[in-house]
């Protein structure tokens, strides 16, 4: 685009705002309103899809406004007269290619990824955002000759915003990659357990890395105040130190805490984007980043409360290193388990007044949601009332079970949150637990020595009868035994969740 033509619409900072400035500002305001309205839609399953679309359109408007507001104003991209800092040329082809690459890399995974793998996709996309912010901070350092020459933005915001963005963005990027690897089960189980056991060593290393990062940031800030011009290796060292800290923070965190970690990293990415927005004097990044940071922080706090744990306890006192893979005989020290058959399970539920389905990650892995919906339909045809008990941290990300069941057309009204359903268990004939473990563990309520003691759970053990569908007697992500499996009123149906539910469906049809 010819810069002379563009300058007809965009004035310099020394002249009053033009009509074009007002158009850009109006687009930003509309975009921000759509961000907030879209986020409000995500509070309920019925409005979540619409909320996503609204927020997505808002982001398109924000991108368009940012492109229209590219600062090609005379002299504004250059440094002070005689400083030797030239006005860069805006490469519109490169901008278009970048947008196209982002679309090509972003849409296919989002469309093809199964719901079971959505947590790791969220972690990966979140990490990309943090990495982008870190690169922006690096670019700002290079473009200002080591925080020496500045454009229309005062030195303070550029330096402070860039340094904060570099630290937090790098932590978020590398931490999210580890979260992705853990969720995708790319790490060897023994390695993952050893990483959890080495939590104290990682904590000590993180303290050192944090001090190093802060020391480098302080040096660069002081150097900028004295004229700048620091060597580029200083910012590289800052990014490396913060990146290693990101790895070390997430390495020892067990699977039981991973939903909270994803939410926390998401909040950090938002805050780093806001810091980068301050450095770039970009309103869109500031507002969007603060929205993501605030909402992510609130969600992280709510999830931590749902586990009755503080966020520092999750970050610095992780527990759970994955399943041990024990077979049906595993965990014998806890007592004797009673096995059941699909036929007996079907008979129990068919003659019940109320059945509560408790879904967990095992249901997601087996893709059993449609089979569960069919089973519930057959029970309802027989006059049985069927409800679904949803724990806040069931699955591997917030709302995982809700979205999974909604995908199978389970009515939203049938999905009950923990606080709403817990009073129902003592009036329930049969509770059927499908792939859930830690969120049903009564040790959280009864055993002060348990690492999950105090964590709110679903009161499945209060039901008159409990049927647990599980592949084996292996522990859940907290890595501890569940006394529910050995209770007198509990029977175990071993096997793949979908296969087991399919067998129950066939038995129900035969009754």
Describe the protein's architecture and organization.
Residues 25-506 form the NADP transhydrogenase beta-like domain. The chain crosses the membrane at residues 20-40, 52-70, 90-109, 121-139, 159-180, 201-222, 234-253, 260-280, 286-304. It is a multi-pass membrane protein. It is an enzyme of class 7 (translocase). InterPro entries: DHS-like_NAD/FAD-binding_dom, NADH_DH_b, PNTB-like. The longest helix has 29 residues, at 155-183. The protein has three domains: 1-112, no CATH class; 115-322, no CATH class; 332-510, 3-Layer(aba) Sandwich (Rossmann fold), CATH 3.40.50.1220. It has helices spanning 3-9, 19-41, 45-68, 92-112, 118-143, 155-183, 189-197, 199-225, 232-250, 258-280, 283-306, 311-316, 342-350, 361-366, 369-381, 400-407, 418-421, 443-446, 497-510, and strands at residues 354-359, 385-390, 415-417, 430-434, 465-470, 490-494. By secondary structure, the chain is α/β, with parallel strands linked by helices. It is 58% helix and 6% strand. The chain has 19 helices and six strands. Strand 2 (385-390), helix 16 (400-407) and strand 3 form a beta-alpha-beta unit. The protein has a six-stranded parallel β-sheet with strand order 3-2-1-4-5-6.
Q: What number of structural domains do the residues give?
A: 3
Main sheet: strands, sense, barrel: 6 strands, parallel
Helix and strand string, N-terminal first?
A: HHHHHHHHHHHHHEHHEHEHEHEEH
Low-confidence stretches: 1-16, 72-87, 320-333
Gap between N and C termini: 74 Å
Report helical residue fraction: 55-70%
Overall average residue pLDDT: 82
What proportion strand? 5-15%
Count of DSSP E strands? Answer: 6
Q: How would you classify the helix and strand content by structural class?
A: alpha/beta
Q: Sum up the overall morphology in one term.
A: elongated
